[in-house]
Amino acid sequence: MSTDASGGGEPDVPVTVTPKAAEEAISLMEGEGMDTDVGGLRLFVQQGGCAGLSYGMRFDNEPEEDDRVTEHHGLRVFVDPSSMNYIGGSTLDYESGLQAAGFHVENPNVEAECGCGESFRT
Residues in domain Core (predicted)? Predict the structure, then answer.
């Protein structure tokens, strides 16, 4: 990953996950036949988007050696050190509504977001 580690986040403060987000992620993992005791949701930051950085999520079968691993409501969450600089202290939530449903990161480190909320700057 080629992000600049000067994001200004709180690397010692883990990302938290709401019960609804954990429930949705676990359901998706089980639907893909993944072992939720070992695998987890990887939350990361990547270059891109109109504000400069964007969030990424994927399921991984196991954490990387240097990942910060936390567990929330039965969901294991993996965050690499570079991403933690940008998203430390954030909360992952799941929102559902009439027009859209999906995961949303509430990041206290954000100084500016694009209009769609998919990219940000710290």
Answer: 15-118
